[in-house]
Amino acid sequence: MSSFLIIYSSTDGHTKIICERITNFLNDGNLVELLSLEDAKKIDLSNFEKIIIGASIRYGKHSKELYKFINLNKNILDQKKSAFFSVNVVARKPEKNTAETNPYINKFLKISKWKPSKIKVFAGKVDYPNYSFFDKYIIKFIMFITKGPTDTSQSYEFTDWSKVDDFSEELKNNY
């Protein structure tokens, strides 16, 4: 039996939903704990065999708190089996939907200097109706520039759930 810690850094909640799906998948015969990044700061990471961190992008960046957390816990993360995935809307494009081709993954790895055992990227969600006025129109502008959806009355989910399930299967069986 393995013990997993899954940590999420989510701006609007979609990364947490992805982490919950992974948690449910792994919970079959494994001990799995799901925590927000904020709550993970309060626990001893060394109590877990495997650590998975999922983080969202907002305006082209992962949160500063994520980088601080990794910097503070880098030694433990390097000693454990660890995985990282980024959730971003750029990954909706086929040419940017792998860890090797996604610019945010490459930037993250360079800045954090962390070398997780497994790295993935999942396309996220544009949820215009639930954004603040400012976010709605900045994201609409970004979507216009990148040829994405701009109807602010709609939500657009780009997540390929079969990719999330495949990643969960990898974590469960080959990790």
Could you list some keywords that capture this structure?
2 domains; about 180 residues; 7 strands; Rossmann fold; alpha/beta; 5-stranded parallel sheet
In short:
With 175 residues, this protein is α/β, with parallel strands linked by helices. It has 6 helices and 7 strands; from the N terminus they run βαβαβαβαββαβα.
The biggest sheet, with number of strands, parallel, antiparallel or mixed sense and barrel status, is: 5 strands, parallel
- Count the domains: 2
Helix content: 25-40%
Give the strand order, joined by hyphens, for the main sheet.
2-1-3-4-5
Distance between the termini: 12 Å
CATH fold assignment of the largest domain:
Rossmann fold
Beta-strand level of the residues, as a percent range? Answer: 15-25%
Secondary structure class reads alpha/beta
Give the name of the CATH superfamily of the largest domain.
Answer: Flavodoxin domain
Mean of the pLDDT scores? 94
Give the class-level CATH name of the largest domain.
Alpha Beta
Principal-axis shape: globular
The Rg value, from CA coordinates, equals 16 Å
The name of the CATH architecture of the largest domain is 3-Layer(aba) Sandwich
Low-confidence stretches: none
Number of helices: 6
According to DSSP, the number of beta strands is: 7
Care to describe what's here?
- The structure is a single chain.
- The chain contains 6 helices and 7 strands.
- It is an alpha/beta fold.
- It folds into 2 domains: about 5-125 and about 160-175, Rossmann fold; about 125-155, no CATH class.
- A 5-stranded parallel beta sheet has the order 2-1-3-4-5, with helices on both faces. Strands 6-7 form a two-stranded antiparallel sheet.
- Helix 4 (about 105-110) links the parallel strand 4 and strand 5.
- The longest helix is centred in the middle third of the chain and has 16 residues, at about 65-80.
- The radius of gyration is 16 Å and the shape is globular.
